[in-house]
Amino acid sequence: MAFPHDFPFDPAYGYGAPELLRVAAPPPPAGFEGFWRARHAAAMRVAPEPRLRPSAAAHSDWIVEELDYRSTGGFTIGGWLLRPRQGPIRRGLVVGHGYGGREGPDLDLPVTETALLFPCFRGLSRSARAPISTDPQWHVL
Fold this sequence. Notes:
With about 140 residues, the chain is α+β, with helices and mostly antiparallel strands.
């Protein structure tokens, strides 16, 4: 069977859209809500102290800046902030990345009037720091 993607397997496991929409979420693990409420509370106590500086990346539609800010545990998160060169900012968009990290911001997203934040998650790319491995296989336990 030919797949409309590069995966060597069927990620839908033979299900069509109607069957996938009927799959219920499993129950949360014990302590799930408490864990995330505590993480949120800890994050809200941090003064992020963001720092911006010009980036070497350039684009006709965006002002590109490198960004660093403090996160929980005193960890510094690096990334990029894109602001439109023209017009107002009416919304913000946070753009994550996969396990390989990112080498730079995506400069071709089809949005206007939007500030784009591209944080690099702990241990990857601009947020690489010991003792977190840069090898993504060690990021999921």
